[in-house]
Amino acid sequence: MPPAARKPRPRQYDPKKTRAAVTAQLAHVRDAVRGLTPEQFALPTRLGDWTVRELVAHLSMTLGAVVRGLAEPAPPQPEATLLEWPSASAPLASAVDERTRALAAAHDPVDLLERTAAEFAGLVGAERDDRVVAARPGAMRLSDLLVTRCLELVVHSDDLAAATGREIPYDRQALATTTRLLADVLAARAPGGSVEVRVPPFAVVQCIEGPRHTRGTPPNVVETDPLTWIRLATGRTTWDEAVDTARLSASGERADLGGHLPVMS
After folding, report:
1. Closest Cα to residue 46, out of 231, 212, 242, 209?
2. Phi, then psi, of 255 in degrees rounded to 5
3. 175-260: CATH topology
4. 217 to 137, 194, 200: CA distances (angstroms)
């Protein structure tokens, strides 16, 4: 019988680097959105029946949630962790969709993003990293909440680029943070040491119950690039699509992770 899977140790993120990453990726998104035409705002996205207009409104809403949380009294302690956040957020999808559509209908998308970005920069820059912030699905330390905003910005930068055909740069630290968080969520949901998932140059995790690898070349290895991993982990592409297009390599009888993905959608 294989040994019990060990619970992965939570990764620590440098708050200063996270703040810089959020700021940098937000700047890239703002540059892209400023250049969109009315016709482009009406384009469909891969997010159900959201148009680009709704997508931009959603990005404004995710940043605005931090602003609103900081305006409330600080909760006594955190209620949600980074590894719990993707699962805990899923039940809120319907409410998020409703709020996003209302924002998109009521505001010019460029003005909305610019106003929210200004409020975000003004409030976040003045707060301590360990400040507990009221948030859905649960209060979080500001440093952790900003990691989730980093992920939102990177994932939706890719959605925006796919919808509009515009090339949107990725801040290296923002891409690294997003890659690592999604890899850690997989390791937490499917604990074990029989499969090694490599996303160079940012992340290596082990997962899936079974014989634990200790030395030499692991018998089960999955390797892909950061953007392909992010798309897999968030349901933007499928396991078979990634394998068929050679964007992912998988060796070993346990190396098919299709049944464990996405970890967030």
Report:
1. 231
2. -85, 5
3. Nonspecific Lipid-transfer Protein; Chain A (3.30.1050)
4. 40, 12, 16
- Using the structure block, give the residue that is written with the tokens 């692991």: 218
DSSP codes joined into one string, 5-33 = PPPPPPPP--HHHHHHHHHHHHHHHHHHH
What is the average per-residue pLDDT within 64-88? 93
Give pTM, 2 decimals: 0.94
Cβ-based neighbours of 166, under 8 Å, separated by 6 or more: 32, 35, 36, 160
Q: What share of the chain is helix, strand, coil (3-state, %, to 5)?
A: 55, 10, 40
Give the C-alpha separation, 127 to 82, whole Å: 19
Domain 15-170 matching CATH 1.20.120.450: the answer reads: yes
Q: What are the domain boundaries of the chain?
A: 15-170, 175-260
Check whether 78 has a pLDDT greater than 70: yes
Residue with tokens 């078979």: 240
